[in-house]
Specification:
Layout (H helix, E strand, L loop, with lengths): L1 H17 L5 H8 L4 E5 L5 E5 L3 E7 L3 H15 L2 E7 L5 H14 L3 E5 L21
Parallel strand pairs: 3-4, 4-5
Antiparallel strand pairs: 1-2, 2-3
């Protein structure tokens, strides 16, 4: 019985990750061309992208509120402004973007997004060229 339960849990975890077109790190690396990636802080946490001005957290849109908290935490430690980049892979993801937008603005967290089109572009989205428009 335990073996079946373990297999079921592993299957769900694999299926959840399989639903994404690309890994979070791939979006981060394509976008964060003017910063350092995976910067480890004194508390052991890691900033996805650290630039001169921003501590940026990347996450899939459904995890927008987690990303918001992490961005604020990283900015406090690094002395930079908080920012987050939501990964929008399908139409359903826009609802998460719209929901978090007002909260991010109120908390002074810069909000950007990235879509799979970044991999088809010759000009990646960077801090100097953020994509901010809503659909």
């Amino acid at each position: 019985m335990r073996i079946l339960l373990t297999l079921a849990i592993l299957s769900m975890a694999t299926t959840a990750h399989a639903g994404h077109l690309y890994k979070e790190a791939q979006y981060r690396d394509a976008w964060c061309t003017k910063g350092r990636t995976e910067v480890t802080l004194h508390d052991g946490s890691r900033v996805d992208c650290l630039t001169e001005n921003y501590a940026i957290e990347f996450d899939f849109a459904a995890k927008a509120y987690e990303a918001l908290g992490q961005a604020i935490h990283y900015a406090r430690i690094t002395g930079t402004d908080p920012a987050m980049v939501l990964i929008i892979e399908n139409e359903k993801d826009w609802k998460h973007y719209r929901r978090i937008k007002r909260t991010a603005t109120k908390r002074n967290v810069k909000l950007w997004y990235v879509t799979p089109s970044i991999f088809n572009s010759t000009r990646p989205l960077t801090e100097g060229n953020p994509k901010e428009a809503t659909p």
